[in-house]
Amino acid sequence: MVVQGSADARVGVQLEPFLHQVGGHMSVMKYDEHTVCKPLVSREQRFYESLPLAMKRFTPQYKGTITVHLWKDSQGHLSLVANPLKENQEPFKVSAESAAVAIWQALQQTTSGSGSARILTQLACPAKESGSPAKAALRPESHLSAQVSSRLEDAGGNQAEKKSFNPWGLHCHQAHLTRLRTEFPEDRRHRFLLLENVVSPYTHPCILDLKMGTRQHGDDASEEKKARHMKKCAQSTSARLGVRICGMQVYQTDKKHFLCRDKYYGRKLSVDGFRQALYQFLHNGTHLRAELLEPILRQLQALLAVIRSQSSYRFYSSSLLIIYDGQEPSERTSGSLRPQEAAQVAHSSSPGGLAKVDIRMIDFAHTTYKGSWNEHTTYDGPDPGYIFGLENLIGILQDIQEGQ
After folding, report:
1. What is the arrangement of strands in the sheet containing 243-252, beginning at the earlier edge strand?
2. pLDDT tens digit string along 27-65?
3. Are 148 and 110 contacting, i.e. CB atoms less than 8 angstroms apart?
4. Lowest model confidence (mean pLDDT) among 15-29, 102-116, 233-247, 379-393
5. How far is CA 291 from CA 114, 257, 356, in A?
6. Of 173, 120, 112, which Cα lies nearest the Cα of 148?
7. Distances (CA, A) of 401 to 110, 288, 289, 341
8. Which has the higher per-residue pLDDT, 327 or 92?
9. How sure is the predictor about 169, in pLDDT bands with cuts at 50, 70 and 90?
10. Assign residue 284 a region: left if phi > 0, alpha if psi is -120 to 50, beta otherwise?
């Protein structure tokens, strides 16, 4: 479904790979500074359109849908182009300042076919670590291949700080483009969901993607898929804690780049390893960001109250994002406040706050609830698996807060 370059094809919005996607398998794209988009799943769209008011503060804002097609420019670079919204009818342009476009084009120039997929897979998988678990938990890892890094250096041979990125989004983007090219006719148009970019307020967004609940398969899963997901849960912390890590990026202030973990790392963690990973998520390479624990716990407890009040909802295979800014306030500003005051300011989402913390539920393609369209199975009461996971997550973070 490749549309060759033409005057008509250039009227639209070029979607960029979202470089802060840390988990999942479906490609998330950047529409503009405050909006991302993803392939539309009808069940997820209906969830956003009928979202209970109490849950809106814990989910991305739903902004509607757009039509998307695959486009190839004169140099052979592949892009996804969206028909613009009414307020944006101008032709798209490739910005020289766009890190996402520069990285993606570099990958297309240095790799092709299976080679491209191989490089992206290598980028997405963490390096092997040695030594004790405690030391390994705080060891930064490099996640840029030589092929890509060499094309992103400035004239002095230095890699700009803003070019640090999480490779998982590129991995998902490559897989999505491959699927579109091989499985769909050339004239096929696709619908995408438009959602709030929940990390746009952050300079260096530190993101933890947690797969919530003790069960991950939807009611419509085949027996083979059901067995596969049940095995993953049984072999991971999903069964024992009701939560497992699906992806993570933590800004390391000493190295000036993100330390990245993927879903394969999360699946292998023991309960103790999961605890260490949560500690690592709050560690910037030099010290623990202890001032963030109180606002994170407050928001998790508020979410727990909301989930307990939602009867019949089952959030199968959904994720929970914990987000904060890896750029700390200046020592002069933060040093002028007592710890209790700093925690209160950190909890605030106001522009003048020292730190921002956000908790968001995402990925509702398998969510079911009473009254949803074409549902054959309904449930009573709140989601027990999700509640179990939240309670354990809160307990572990409280242990970290108390120094255990």
Report:
1. 257-261, 243-252, 205-212, 319-325, 357-362
2. 999 999 999 999 999 999 999 999 999 999 999 999 999
3. yes
4. 102-116
5. 45, 21, 11
6. 120
7. 46, 10, 10, 16
8. 327
9. confident
10. alpha
Contact present, 77 and 198 (Cβ < 8 Å): no
Q: Is 72 left (phi over 0), alpha (psi -120 to 50) or beta?
A: beta
- The Cα 187–Cα 58 span in angstroms is 37
Q: In this model, does residue 164 exceed pLDDT 50?
A: yes
Contact between residue 278 and residue 206 where contact means Cβ atoms under 8 Å apart: no
**How many residues are present in the chain?**
404
Q: Which residue has the tokens 């994170």?
A: 296
Residue 288, strand partner residues? 283
Task: Sort 388 into a burial class: Cβ within 10 Å, 0-12 / 13-18 / 19+.
Answer: middle
Cβ–Cβ under 8 Å, residues 59 and 51: yes
329 token code pair = 């306030």
209 within 8 A of 245, measured Cβ to Cβ = yes
pLDDT (0 to 100) of residue 42: 92
- The pLDDT tens digits for 196-248 are 999 999 999 999 999 999 988 888 888 888 898 888 899 899 999 999 999 99
